[in-house]
């Protein structure tokens, strides 16, 4: 473990620490280490955000078709509405995920995960008239899981832990 000297108080501490334990001065060398560590998670959040926006269009059209079919058949099924809300949740989560992909706050990293999971929750038991909806819900759950894990990893990085 290499040591670094604090520019404010002169205290020697680990070069992996986020700040000097004595005076709290930020470690100027940590930013490079953190960017390298979070690079995979940041890229993953960007890719998932883009895929979510593309899936929004597909799910939206399928939901409109399922809703129209449900209305014409007068079967009281709500899968079209559930799919529409899932599509909106995926759009919001994708945009927020892209906007916060380089955030060092674990809360802003986890917010898209909540949107993904809320959308996935709406798809439980809705595959009777819209067979693809549970698949999109499962994918939304997985996307949310990635964002939650990224938030946990970000929290560990902010505390100076090695991930």
Short description:
The chain has 163 residues and is mainly alpha-helical. It has 4 helices and 2 strands, in the order E-E-H-H-H-H. It has one domain.
Description of the structure:
There is one protein chain. The protein is mostly helical and 163 residues long. It has one domain (37-158). It is 66% helix and 4% strand. The protein has 4 helices and 2 strands. Strands 1-2 form a two-stranded antiparallel sheet. Helix 3 (106-121) packs antiparallel against helix 4 (133-158). The chain is rod-shaped, with a radius of gyration of 21 Å. The two termini are 16 Å apart. 33% of the residues are buried.
List keywords for this structure.
single chain, 163 residues, mainly alpha, two-stranded antiparallel sheet, 4 helices
Set out the fold topology.
Blueprint: E1 3-5, E2 12-14, H1 30-73, H2 79-99, H3 106-121, H4 133-158
Antiparallel strand pairs: 1-2
Largest sheet: 2 strands, antiparallel
How helix-rich are the residues, as a percent range? 55-70%
- How many domains? The number is 1
Q: Which regions have little confidence, pLDDT < 50, spanning 5+ residues?
A: 32-36
- Average pLDDT works out at 82
Counted beta strands: 2
Strand content: under 5%
Structural class: mainly alpha
Number of helices: 4
Q: What order do the strands of the largest sheet run in, or round the barrel if closed? A: 1-2
Shape: rod-shaped
The CA-CA distance between the termini, in Å, is: 16 Å
The radius of gyration computed from the alpha-carbon positions, rounded to a whole number of angstroms, is: 21 Å
Order of helices and strands: EEHHHH
